[in-house]
Amino acid sequence: MKPHELYAAASPDLISDMLDWFRANDRNVYKSTIATLAANRKLRPVFVQKKSLADQYAWIHKTLKIAACDTIGGHLLQAYLMSAQQSMLAMFCDGMGIPHDGKGSVAGDLPESLDASRLDATIDKLVDVFDPKLFTLYLRCFNLQVSGGWPELSAKLDSDPRLLLA
């Protein structure tokens, strides 16, 4: 899935949680997101900023569902996961035996393949620890890191009913 497809599949609550985090922890990213998306839609940022918070979130979510917004949408997801969800990323890397910096950022090259049994065990553990929708969003973003994704992870995402975005 591409970023705009992730946003289309994600629940509004999941996106609202992400935007809430940015408003509370990195307001500059939130403001920059509005400015970039507004410019992309040929609007002035004030058009969005004058809306209620709920309407801002709905407008941002709706706009991120557009393929032309894939770049900003992808960057926003990466920034959120790498900043707000470090423990989840680190636990996944640990479970998969992927070297990382202690915060979930992979150290060195990504693996060429994923061990299916190790993937199953890691997912079984983490889907109970974290919000399954958030964990699924991370897995989908992680799978975007290699062209075509990892076949083992793609198959798991397509077949496991616990790994739904909405």
Key traits:
mainly alpha, single chain, 68% helix, 166 residues, 2 domains
Describe the SSE topology.
Blueprint: H1 3-9, H2 12-25, H3 27-40, H4 45-49, H5 53-64, H6 70-84, H7 86-96, H8 116-129, H9 132-143, H10 151-159
Helix pairs in contact: 2-3, 2-5, 7-8
- Specify the biggest β-sheet: none
The unreliable regions are: none
Please indicate the count of domains: 2
End-to-end CA span? 14 Å
User: What is the helix/strand order?
Assistant: HHHHHHHHHH
The tally of strands reads 0
Question: What does this molecule look like?
Answer:
The chain is an all-alpha fold and 166 residues long. The chain contains ten helices and no strands. It has helices spanning 3-9, 12-25, 27-40, 45-49, 53-64, 70-84, 86-96, 116-129, 132-143, 151-159. The mean pLDDT is 94.
Brief summary of the model shown:
The protein is mainly α.
